[in-house]
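U., I forgot to send this yesterday:
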Amino acid sequence: MTLVLETIVPVFGIVALGYWLARCQNPDVATLSNLALTVTSPALIFRSLAAMDFRKPGWLEPVGGAFCIALCTGLVAWAIARKRPELRGFVLAATFWNAGNLPLPCCQLAFGEAGLQAATLVFVAMGLMHSTAGIWIAKGAGGGGEALRNPLFLAFAAGVTVSLTGTKLPSLLATPIDMLAQMAIPLMLLTLGIQLRSLSVVDLHGSLQACAVRFGMGLLVATAFVTALPVSEMTRKVLLLHAVMPSAVINYVIARRYGSHPGLVASTIVFSTLLAAITIPTMLAFLGSGT
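Result:
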């Protein structure tokens, strides 16, 4: 219970602060979201990957698990909604979970720096999937071409390059990158709270179905993955925690941009985030019990 409280209270406390700020001060959420996606999150990804030893195979476990969960969940979501007009929005909302705002601080607080590193790999994998498959799902043909210009992808490429070449950045460059990386998680949490204030529920039935697929398939596939394969204990914990995360807020941004039923996507984000207040503490308690 101590682990759960020490993880959940700080995380949801900052989210609640963001919600309160949105109500009282009306901050510019577009600017904050843009900073998180194009500056601080890429800095966090670069810092984590640059410090990683890719000669060790352990990094494949969380990345492979993330791709497996997303692929299986997406296929089931497509099968359920393939004859519906809101197919693209349904698949988008059910497939891509919040891999940044909530799991990064939860994994850091619950599992330490090793947990943060594994969660960052999942965050990178989800960012790559969002910028390729996510845009393709929302936009259709031609959507994948934007991936190479995505800051998350560029940070991924740069971090891997620095790691593989053994390059040591000068402190004049490394220090500001590290400072920006430290801003990433608090800014994500504040932005999530601010964005939740502006979302509304318009499709109750469809969003509840999307939530069922998000949590049900996520947990089923993650459990099968960590049970069938000889993954590390840290990978097991991180993937199981990711399996019960809500639909990503960025899904709404993508859906609104490409006209892929943003109302359904917004409703799914609201309901799944409310449910996450139950699923995350429950999973943390389960993992903390050593089961």
